UniProtKB/TrEMBL annotation:
Keywords for this protein: Acyltransferase, Lipoprotein, Membrane, Palmitate, Transferase, Transmembrane, Transmembrane helix
Organism listed in the record: Tortispora caseinolytica NRRL Y-17796
Principal localisation: membrane
Catalytic activity entry: L-cysteinyl-[protein] + hexadecanoyl-CoA = S-hexadecanoyl-L-cysteinyl-[protein] + CoA
Stated name of the protein: Palmitoyltransferase
Membrane topology annotation: Multi-pass membrane protein
Length: 311
């Protein structure tokens, strides 16, 4: 295990159990029980997000033959939407990103587990913050009562402030990630692909790629997208994962059967326009190279765990 995982366990258990204790002492037993239950839910979903495999690509050395290139590093098939993860050392199907906080890749097989962990964190911290606010409001309301009637010890008060700040911080930071994860699922796009899409759109704006390149081919409409990512039934949404194999994908009507994103014309086209651009406009050519380009959030594709030498 890496340090991020220890830190996460420490925050989940520390924040959850300390708040539960404060609620036992200063709120009702049922409120404390709900806090404890939500903490347990976060622990369970976190454990599953760590241990559930992301979905490794099939080995190219087995009997199975696939119409997909072979990765030079792990000797597995590398179908569309798969990437070689630098941390895991394998090609991951429909790779979303490598998450340092779960020390696991997020891919086709565990996207649901990862999403449920994030949602559980938001539910739990949302509830804890609400209860913390009620307690703080109660303390404020009793600010004029004599000190000998005031039933909070310094220690309890310090713990309340500590857990309130921690819960609020976690709620906001994980909230951004949760939003991004769910919105991406609704569009059937991975974190890596949304980075690619930004890059492609920028190239379209510059006239380097045709406008059709910016049409994301796996977006099948919200309802179909969510079923592709999380599975067909309510059961799979709540407990399981998608039944997709991560090797072949449905395309939206009218989209090109060619792999997306399109290869950079600088690299593949024989058109003199591009070879000219490669030499005369070297700055622009370098700007869009996969190992150079940064999206609006300043992220490079390597930030998601992708091994650039295999792209
Ligand atoms: Zn690989
Ligand atoms: Zn990985």
């Amino acid at each position: 295990m890496i340090w991020q995982v220890y830190i996460t366990w420490l925050v989940i258990l520390g924040d959850g159990l300390a708040t539960t204790w404060i609620l036992y002492v200063h709120s009702s037993t049922s409120v404390a029980h709900v806090a404890l239950l939500l903490t347990a839910l976060v622990c369970l979903t976190y454990y599953l997000a760590i241990v559930k495999p992301a979905g490794w690509a099939p080995s190219a050395e087995g009997s199975r033959t696939l119409d997909a290139p072979t990765c030079q590093k792990c000797r597995r098939y590398k179908p569309i939407r798969a990437h070689h993860c630098k941390k895991c050392g394998n090609c991951v199907l429909r790779m979303d990103h490598h998450c340092p906080w779960t020390d696991n890749c997020v891919g086709v097989a565990n996207y649901g587990y990862f999403s449920r962990f994030l949602v559980a964190v938001e539910l739990a911290t949302g509830y804890l913050i609400y209860q913390d606010c009620l307690l703080i409001h109660g303390i404020y309301a009793s600010r004029n009562v004599p000190m000998n009637v005031f039933d909070w010890t310094r220690m309890e008060f310090a713990v309340l402030l500590c857990v309130s700040v921690t819960s609020a911080f976690v709620f906001m930071t994980v909230g951004l990630m949760t939003y991004r994860t769910l919105v991406n699922a609704a569009q059937n796009i991975t974190t890596i692909e949304s980075w690619e899409l930004e890059r492609v759109r920028s190239q379209v704006t510059r006239g380097i790629l045709a406008p059709s390149a910016a049409l994301f081919p796996y977006d099948l409409g919200i309802s179909r997208n969510l079923k592709e990512v999380y599975g067909e039934s309510v059961f799979s949404w709540l407990f399981g994962s998608t039944n997709r194999d991560g090797v072949s994908f449905s395309l939206r009507p009218g989209s090109s059967p060619d792999p997306w994103p399109p290869q950079d014309p600088f690299e593949v086209s024989t058109d003199p326009y591009y070879s000219d651009m490669k030499t005369k406009r070297e700055v622009l050519y370098n700007y869009y190279k996969k190992d150079q380009w940064l999206n609006d959030d300043g992220e490079n594709i390597a930030d998601f765990g992708v091994d650039l030498s295999t792209e």
